[in-house]
Hints:
The complex is a heterodimer.
Chain A: H1 6-15, E1 28-30, H2 37-46, H3 51-65, E2 89-91, H4 105-114, H5 118-125, E3 128-133, E4 136-140, H6 143-149, E5 152-155, H7 156-162, H8 164-170, H9 181-189, E6 194-198, E7 208-213, E8 224-229, E9 234-242, E10 250-252, E11 255-260, E12 265-273, E13 285-295, E14 300-307, E15 312-315, E16 318-321, E17 327-336, E18 341-344, E19 347-350, E20 356-365, E21 370-379, E22 387-396, E23 402-411, E24 417-426, H10 429-437, H11 442-458, H12 463-476
Parallel strand pairs in A: 3-7, 6-8, 7-9, 8-11, 9-12, 10-13, 11-13, 12-14, 13-15, 13-16, 14-17, 15-18, 16-19, 17-20, 18-21, 19-21, 20-22, 21-23, 22-24
Antiparallel strand pairs in A: 1-2, 3-4, 5-6
Chain B: H1 3-9, H2 11-15, H3 24-38, H4 54-57, H5 73-76, E1 87-92, E2 95-96, E3 109-112, H6 113-118, H7 123-129, H8 138-145, E4 151-155, E5 165-171, E6 178-180, E7 183-188, E8 193-202, E9 208-218, E10 223-230, E11 236-246, E12 251-258, E13 263-272, E14 278-287, E15 292-301, E16 307-316, E17 321-330, E18 338-347, E19 353-362, E20 368-376, H9 380-388, H10 393-409, H11 415-429
Parallel strand pairs in B: 1-5, 4-7, 5-8, 6-9, 7-9, 8-10, 9-11, 10-12, 11-13, 12-14, 13-15, 14-16, 15-17, 16-18, 17-19, 18-20
Antiparallel strand pairs in B: 1-2, 3-4
Helix pairs in contact in B: 3-8, 9-10, 10-11
Amino acid sequence: MSKFTEDDLKKELETKEYEYGFYTDIESDTFPVGLNEDVVRAISAKKNEPKWMTDWRVDAFRIWSAMEEPEWANVKYNKPDFQAISYYSAPKKTDPNKSLEDVDPELLATFEKLGISLDEQKKLSGVAVDVVVDSVSVATTFKKTLNEKGIIFCSISEAIQEHPELVKKYIGSIVPKTDNFYAALNSAVFTDGSFCYIPKGVKCPMELSTYFRINQGGTGQFERTLLVADQGSYVSYLEGCTAPSRDENQLHAAVVELIALDDAEIKYSTVQNWFPGDKEGKGGVFNFVTKRGLCENNAKISWTQVETGSAVTWKYPSCILKGNNSVGEFYSIAVTNNYQQADTGTKMIHLGKNTKSTIISKGISAGKSQNSYRGLVQISPRAENARNFSQCDSLLMGNECGAHTFPYIEAKNKTAQIEHEATTSKIGEDQIFYCNQRGIDTEKAIALIVNGFSKEVLNKLPMEFAVEAQKLLEISLEGSVG
Amino acid sequence: MELKEKLVSSFLAFESTVDTTNSTHDIRSEAIKFFEIYGFPTKKNEAWKYTSLNNILKQDFILFPKNEVALEYKDVKKYFINDLDSYKIVFIDGVYSSHLSSTTHDKIDVCLMSSALTQNRFKQVIDVYYNTIVKEDGMTALNTAYAKEGAYIYIPKNTIADKPIEVVHFSTGSNGTLLCQPRNLIVVEDRSQVTIVERHQNLSTEKAFTNSVTEIYAGKNANIDYYKIQNDTKLSSLVDNTFVEQHDTSVASVHTFAFGGEITRNNLNFYQKGQGIDSILNGVTILEGKTHVDHNTLVEHQEPNCESHQDYKGIFDDKATGVFNGKIIVDQIAQKTNAFQSNNNILLSDKATVNSKPQLEIFADDVKCSHGCTIGQLDESALFYMRSRGIATKEAKALLMYAFANNVLESVKIPQLKKRINNLIAEKLGVSIGFDL
């Protein structure tokens, strides 16, 4: 058997092309490029939105216009030209009444290629899929089962039409329009996304899942996700992303808001595999996402993410632990390769008493990529007995990549207990030697070590997702994950 | 008039007091221009996120002391280290006190910056090292512009300084609220060794602000031990900028004991320019009252096979604020680097705050780097254990705090200094535990 060394792995990583890069030709209804107040109003009109929503968007647009693009993140990129993006693109053949059979066969083939055939999912996995292709919901499954439980799971535009009172109450309550540059932009121009409401005491019987894809060249994707778990309810929500190969940079600025009311629990898992650019660093998706959750008393929010894609990632899923005894968790694997740059992490804001948070972040950098962890743990003066544990580990492959850690720890209460640990290392020669000694070849040894390195996070993924996460990790680090 | 304008406009007056014909004149002029553009750091500056100088800068500082003040040795004896035979460089209100000092030119040079900057025989060293290690920012540029006095220590090749060197700055208040800007240069050439203890002490009820810059050069195989004792009154503020450049297989350690001062900011920077280097940064911070200490460290690994160790312990009571902002940079060529950073804090009061920001920036793959940071309290069960064995609460707490800070204290190599620091801590905690660590 030929010897598989780390150099071979590196070479393989460098030459590995994006497997899921393909482009589906669907006729799209696309706005001309550019952004101004009229475009915002037109998006709103196109979606038949009520006046309050239009006003909300216009307000957000005005706030955005006065803002400047942030530069503090440890990433370098050519800033997107916001006037060169088309802000609305919907696959033309959408009809609210159609069934799965009516869905554009070409689109279905796309999903098949991604291994997420709706039919298969419907029959086998019991996962309800609210498929988003280019910003508009195409098909929603399992609505009936969910309806029986009183769970609302639909696209956000549908929710604005049918459940305006809920949307109005919660939208922008966690991530306000003024929050940051990209959140403001998203608030102004978001075209679709998912909405989910779990009523009091209901335990959602299945994993809710949405697949996002950017499909139309030159369109930005501005998802808006709003998830409300009422008192004592439980939901596990999955979000997965893959995008076809594109040469120009595509912008993705999503906002995700989670609200866990008293005793509720939300588990939010993401697998992100937007196109990372080719090995020269050409193309790729800009992923500037604002994700935040609010925990009321005894509530729990758990973020799990596997980040393998995007040319530039800027993402900090956060928890505001407002209620007493609330719990926030963040589990993340970020893999960067070639010229990818990731600046990701979390914020845990402890406000209530006896609040707990756990942060486990694993970064793997290969090629010429830069991988940063940036996190904040804040204990406010009133947060008695707050507890935090953070662990940030980085694995470096090759000497042209970088791993960075920027944790911010602010404690204003004497009863706080905070632990933060970070390590950076490469796969040790002694580790590989140990495996070799026991008859495990180098390729398997590397696989074993990388797998072990990420296990803590992979274990947190729901079963259905773990398989896909493995698959996506393989694309980025094939040969190293067994 | 704002302090910044005052400083800029007083520059000409200052220049008239120093020799403008030598090379340092250009360095000064450049620096004041830099300061005019960048000014004092603000909270918007990421490195100053947790420390604001605004309150200090509101003061109307006197830049040039008028009165020369003499102090009697017996009055200030307690600020020197007991029973320690040492060279002493003493400044009173920024002015050199020959009466209290004991300097030397025998084999090594332990003398004044003002002599070094003006006298020809030091020119060679000044030309090579002066203002080469410091990295310019608003504070260091201001110091460079007004650099005139400070300690000058030169240890030539293959020499071990026979005694430790004490550098002490007193402020007496008889010149009003003074802004002092000492400038120190310490050159330790190949295979040489030195130990230095630095202290700032305010003797009055006037406010005092010190903006100090120290450049330390460690040649091949050099060994430097530097101790900073910061146990000043609540009226004193200090911005200490220390820059250390290290060459092959040198070992440099800086130990900072921060026990007081209104605002203390330590900018401690290590640049490793050779292989086999070890950099050691230790700190113990024990604060109460409305005091603020900010340790801002940087270790830049620029060559392979080096190590760095950072260990900062903090205990904060009352309204004290502690900041740790540590950064390790490992350059791409700096393979086989081992860099460790640890910051442990204990909060004793609800009004106390700790902000910690340990950062790693790593560009090389074959490295072992780690940082750890904890914030917590004294262990209740350990306290109970001692209480149940008849040790009073206060003493039990003090014991635990000693234990907490012990591995930093252990690294102090001068026994007399260790004793002194032990006494300071005992005094601080209000106990006598009856043994030396």
